[in-house]
Amino acid sequence: MKRFMLMMLMVCASVLTYAQTNVKADAVVKFKELRHNFGKIKQGVPVTHDFEFTNVSGQPVIIETATASCGCTTPTWPQAPVMKEKAAIIKAGFNAAAPGPFEKTVYVKVKGIDAPLELRIAGEVISAADFDKLNKK
Length: 137
Description:
Elements: H1 2-21, E1 29-31, E2 35-42, E3 47-55, E4 63-68, E5 73-76, E6 87-94, E7 100-110, E8 117-126, H2 128-136
Parallel strand pairs: 2-8
Antiparallel strand pairs: 1-3, 3-6, 4-7, 5-6, 7-8
C-alpha cells in the first residue's frame, strides 16, 4: 500500500510539473494586437509601434526579453514586473534603411513560460522620392 501511494504521489507531482511548463504566454498576457502593418513608409525614416498588453494572470508578470528577428528592428520592454490587471507596452522600432517589403518578428519571453510569444511588424519601405509623390496626391 505504501508503495502504491508513493507511486501515485510521484505521478501527480510529474503531471503538475508538466502542466506548469506547458502554460502559454497568451494565458498570462493578452495583447491588443499581435501584428501591425505600417503600410508604405519613407526610406531612412525610422518608425515605431506600441504593442499594448495586459497582465491577465493572478500575479505579477516579468517580461524577461524581447528580441528581434534582425538588427533592423529594435524592441524595448518594461523592466519592472507588470502587476495583475495592469497594462504595459512593448515598443517595436524599425529603421527603414533598405527599400522593399518587410515582415519582422519580435519574440517576447515571459518569465516562467518556455515558448516565446511572437509579435509581427510589416510594411513596405519606399524611396523618399516615391514617398513624396505618393503623399502629394
